[in-house]
């Protein structure tokens, strides 16, 4: 894309100005409007219904400001900042997950090795090595972690521990890493809002799906959809969220990502399903472990994995569909 | 020196605690804001002290005094300097316990002077198993000496895995600090110890399972 179509943001201290696609600025502005409306609602509802407790809604909204600020800053700054941010997100998610999962005393250094895998995974993003990225965790960490465990020598509970490590690396590191890899999409591709536009649409659609499911469920929820795993989820919330998010992707998506024809339909139809699936799958794991939240990191939301559970499923799907239908580089 | 200590806690120890443990606190509002007070916690790792020093608001930090074994924390000039000036310990000469010497005198003086004593009644670091060792009664003697000081039970879950006794390489793993309701001295040492023990076990039951699986 020629530079003339970019809006440039001047920086102080003689730093080179940031070049940002206008659509991305509009998108971020739209998110700010939605957040402001949420904040107004969080302030107004306690006055309208003085006997109900809205502390959680207020905490949730406040936390959204922080999350949106961090993600927007990373997207505007570029692929380097985004890679660092998602490397930290993967580290925090793994640091939440592995201590809760049933690991054995002997596996302490396997856990340390898993953090090393986080660094390497994002090093391949930084080095723009897509081919290696694709196989590093699913193939080579898949083999290396159990071999390391075998070297340590405790064979009791071996298979379930190996499976736990691999699940943790795939969901917390490999899947989430795709978000950062989207930023490495070359400028030769027909991108309406640059690589950051691709990430923006993924994050906005995934989080909008979570929020829409919640709101539709609160308003009209009657019939439980997964009573034994996630009793608060309803068919009404699921379908309402699906339609809302699909419409968002169909109508707004083309401003941020090269969506046309079948690709546009596939992403609109399947991304909300993947978000729902990621959420329910992580709920099953939390229920197995016996916790409601994976930590208390984000006030009102729970832990990193409670917030990013849908993203662990939507990120690879979105990346692969874009790669199949629109992007020549991947 | 107090300012140096505050800077070290806020800008070195606190970030370290967050990176290596996540530092989740459940019941933060129950932490004492001013002394005299006693915080009694289970003990598996040096990370316990790191966590307890960094979860208080800055205004309270300067009042925190970990009760620490003199034979360990006052060995050599460098470690002694760090223990006294950065950690702010009150030394307990545990090797002299039972000799008639008043090993709790420094802790008692600090407590009566309005400090918050951080104490590990198990006496030494455990092996990060699920068991809590027998509690030593020094905490009761401190509470007796200063009955107006509330004793706040704190359960530290998972810290023994970040840096177990004997390990040299810390491994980042989320930990949880669970703060209980304050216990008051009511004039009876064994009753006090029972209440403290029950309260700690109750907190442990509420902790997320950040512990090794038993094979």
Q: Strands, helices and their partners?
A:
The complex is a heterodimer of chains A (330) and B (215).
Chain A: E1 7-9, E2 18-20, H1 22-48, H2 55-77, H3 79-100, H4 108-126, H5 130-152, H6 158-182, H7 194-220, H8 235-252, H9 261-289, H10 304-325
Antiparallel strand pairs in A: 1-2
Chain B: H1 2-21, E1 24-26, E2 37-41, H2 46-54, H3 58-61, E3 64-69, H4 70-73, H5 77-87, E4 90-92, H6 105-112, E5 116-119, H7 138-145, E6 151-157, H8 159-162, E7 176-179, H9 189-206
Parallel strand pairs in B: 1-7, 2-5, 2-6, 3-4, 3-5
Antiparallel strand pairs in B: 6-7
Helix pairs in contact in B: 1-2, 7-9
Describe the structure.
The complex is a heterodimer of chains A (330) and B (215). Chain A has 330 residues and is mainly α. Chain A has a domain at 81-184. Chain A contains ten helices and two strands; from the N terminus they run ββαααααααααα. A two-stranded antiparallel sheet of chain A has the order 1-2. In chain A, a hairpin with an 8-residue loop joins β1 (7-9) and β2 (18-20). In chain A, α3 packs antiparallel against α6 (158-182), α5 runs antiparallel to α6 and α7 runs antiparallel to α8. Helix content of chain B is 40%, strand content 15%. Chain B has one domain: Glycerol-3-phosphate (1)-acyltransferase, CATH 3.40.1130. The longest helix of chain B is centred in the N-terminal third of the chain and has 20 residues, at 2-21. The N and C termini of chain B lie far apart (48 Å). In chain B, α1 (2-21) packs across α2 (46-54) and α7 (138-145) packs across α9 (189-206). Chain B has a seven-stranded mixed sheet with strand order 1-7-6-2-5-3-4, sandwiched between helices. Chain B has helices at residues 2-21, 46-54, 58-61, 70-73, 77-87, 105-112, 138-145, 159-162, 189-206, and strands at 24-26, 37-41, 64-69, 90-92, 116-119, 151-157, 176-179. The model of chain B has no long low-confidence stretch (mean pLDDT 93). Chain A binds chain B through residues 91-92, 95-96, 98-100, 102-105, 108-109, 111-112, 115, 154, 156-157, 289-291, 295-297, and chain B through 22, 24-26, 158, 161, 164, 167, 169, 171-175, 208-210, 212-213, 215.
